[in-house]
Design goal:
Length: 340
């Protein structure tokens, strides 16, 4: 395939990482950017050298011969924008959380399938370098058959100044962070059969839950997923994700400062897997930038090879079901059983 023409809709906080990564990825040209806030669109266009600048997505799609569009807006606009891009026959990426409901998410997947376009969710936590390294160790059988996983994202980092909508959304940490944590649970342990979840609202002046824990059952094991935006700890690992996987031949553990320890057949090895360094900064730290570049390179590879992205829209439905299933579990204080 020739050089790919990219369009980006949404030029806000996190889009700065997407835009910088598109600029860095070979054989991709940032043909157009769009934001309904003209100042943001103009600033992004100038900063990242976009060919054209728009404030209306429909106008951009009508005028630009794009190969794909990267939607980096917040969830309320995900469905109309993805459906619009699919109607124009363009491949499309959409940021997480995919949609405010399973009905919306399924409609988006169906729209892209009907249009014959490739559809990926920009679920990038599984693309952090240390996560890929740990997954390879598991896939190589070094710890045997995994039977237990714990994925934790507990931080006191003040997420609200950069993402003010998080303070007012009715659903917070399961919706915003659960999509990452549950995707990692599936990545390491496979599909989930049932779960039981509990939540709390610790912060007095936010609307949604800011602490959640879920116990998840797989065919061959158990996972514990926990997440919060309130932990007051000595070493805040914000955006690093402590992971522990135990198997019948050993275990691995990802700890702060990108340390990975492995026990395989009683032999201990230590690995230090820091993120690659990129010229543009982000308050989120290197692991995020690395994961954004990696997932966007994966996308380009999929378009070139005609393959389905790892976190395709269809795949992400299984992750999103765990988020909404957790809310159902909390509401009824019951076990949620996933759809077959
Ligand atoms: P933001 O509000 O800072 O930016 C969104 C931008 O989209 C705004 O500038 C807004 O004007 C624009 N927009 C909204 N609807 C539009 C439309 N119909 N047409 C054109 N422009 C439109 O939001 P953000 O914090 O950058 O978050 C964007 C998405 O990224 C969210 O879904 C969030 O969950 C996700 N996010 C992901 C990560 C990650 O992948 N690790 C990190 C942070 C945020
Ligand atoms: O990474 C994310 O999805 C953001 C967070 C608050 C965790 O940075 O929403």
């Amino acid at each position: 395939m020739q050089n790919l023409k990219a369009g980006v809709i949404g030029c806000g906080y996190f889009a700065q990482n997407h835009l910088a990564a598109w600029q860095a990825i070979e054989d991709v040209t940032l043909a157009a950017v769009c934001d309904q806030q003209a100042d943001r669109a103009e600033e992004a266009g100038a900063k990242f050298g976009a060919g054209k600048v728009y404030t209306d997505a429909a106008e951009m799609l009508a005028n630009e011969p794009l190969d794909f569009v990267d939607v980096v807006t917040t969830p309320p606009s995900h469905r109309p924008l993805v459906e619009l891009v699919a109607q124009h026959g363009r491949h499309v990426i959409c940021q997480k959380p995919l949609a405010p409901s399973m009905e919306d998410a399924k409609a988006m997947v169906d729209a892209c399938k009907s249009a014959g376009v490739t559809f990926m969710v920009h679920e990038n936590f599984r693309w952090q370098g240390i996560i890929r390294h740990a997954k390879q160790i598991v896939d190589d059988g070094k710890i045997g058959e995994p039977f237990f996983a714990q994925v934790s994202f507990r931080t006191g980092y003040d997420v609200y100044p950069n993402q003010p909508y998080l303070a007012t959304d009715e659903r917070l940490v399961l919706y915003d962070m659960g999509v990452h944590v549950f995707d990692l649970v599936r990545f390491f342990m496979g599909e989930v059969n049932s779960l039981y979840a509990q939540t709390h609202r610790i912060h007095p002046d936010i609307r949604g839950e800011d602490a959640a824990t879920a116990l998840l059952r797989h065919d061959h094991g158990t996972s514990v997923a926990n997440m919060n935006y309130v932990s007051a700890v000595e070493h805040d690992e914000f955006i690093q994700i402590p992971v522990r996987i135990e198997g019948n031949r050993g275990s691995l553990e990802i700890r702060r400062d990108y340390q990975l320890s492995v026990v395989s057949d009683k032999q201990m090895t230590h690995h230090h897997v820091p993120p690659g360094q990129y010229p543009w900064g982000s308050p989120l730290g290197g692991a995020v930038i690395e994961s954004v570049v990696n997932v966007q390179r994966h996308w380009v590879d999929c378009l070139r090879n005609g393959t389905e992205p790892d976190t395709s829209g269809a795949d992400n439905l299984k992750t999103l079901e765990l988020v909404f299933g957790s809310y159902k579990s909390v509401a009824g204080d019951t076990i949620y059983h996933t759809e077959a």
